[in-house]
Every structure is written in C-alpha cells, then in structure tokens.
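Q: I'm writing up a methods section and want to include an example of the input and output format. Could you take the sequence below and give the corresponding predicted structure tokens, formatted cleanly so I can copy it straight into the document?
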Amino acid sequence: MTALKAYTVYDGGDHSVIVFARHNVVARREGANELDCGFNELDYCKRSPEFDSYAPGPVPPLVAIEHGWWFECSCCSRKVDGDVRQAAEDEGEDADLFGAVADGRAVYCSETCRMKEFAEHQARKTAEVALIEVFESIFPGATINHVYASLDGHRLEAAPQSEAARRRSSGSAVNFTFPGGKGGARWQFGDELVSVNLDDVEGYCAWRGKPVPEAYRQPEVTP
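A: Here is the clean output for your methods example:
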C-alpha cells in the first residue's frame, strides 16, 4: 500500500493546510473540505515532502514555522513566524521576550502570552465553578446545559441591566432546562430576569411558585 504523503493545499487567499494522503486528488479533496471551499476553487495542492515523516499528522506548529509557515498568536493575534523576534525589535520591543511557543496546536508569540492565556483559562474555570454554585443555590432542581463565565479581570462579570444590553446577552450566563419546561431557559448572573420560550412562561412560573405576569396569561375560555 502506498504510504501517506504530505501535501500543502492553498485556497488562494489567507489559508493553507497540510494534508496527508496517498494521492494528490485525495489530498486536494480533503484540503478543500478543511478549507471550506470547492475542489476547483483551490489555488494549488502540491507535495511537501519535508513533512512526510509526520504522517498521519498533524505537523507540530514549530516544525511548520521552521519551514516558512506562520500562525496567529492564540493570545494577542500577533503574527508568529521565523521572524517574530525581529518584528518585535522593529516595533521597539525587547526581542529577547519573544519567540514562537507551542502548546499542543495553540501557538504563541512568547512565553508571556502562553502563561497569560493559561492564567485566564484557569481563572475562567474557577469562575465557572463559582457561577454554577450561585446558580444551583437559586435554581435547585434545574439541569445545567451550558455555562459561560465572562470575566471582568478575574471576577465574574454581571449582566448589564439595560434592556438593550440584556438583548445582547452579555455577561456571565447559564443555559438550563427546568422540570416541566418544553425548551431551554437562560439566566444571566446579576440579572433578576430569566429568558424562557413563550410557551414555557406558565410552566416556569409554576415551577418557581410565582404568578404568571398578566401579559403572558392565557385567556380563559367560557364553556
């Protein structure tokens, strides 16, 4: 059986991928799928034997950089390539603080950026745990579907109280379902209101032991 070979597939714009396949046509098809474009829309699909030894992939980011590839820093979006130190120096920064760093598939322009993102990730995990604890104390019996902890520094960010801001769904939030509900609901940290489907208003109010607001009450039918 023919061994897997490395191909560089380029969409003609800003994106390229390294694909491992046994034949060019297969690499072109798989590359097009990964780049989300048509088979015939690609600019080229060419052999990259310098990456063959990494089959079936992926190619380590730092190895790709050594061969002329570039990435965006996962933390600050700076261009990370073989000249990242020189680019930093040209911008008046201390070149010794820069250099391509990889953590799995993530690439950073410096160890500082890697550690900054790590710290933010850890802070978000801690914040999510705190958000869950607050939510469960307010809504016992609900089932959490998704938690998003928005951070203001390293603190949970509360939802703005204006109607316009509320519609943008900013701030820390929990998506959940509740007993008797037909759909999902959303609670934002710091907000007294909960968003539910129109059909679930009565069910939610019954679950919470609250009266149904006048505007949402179903009209009584006279027999």
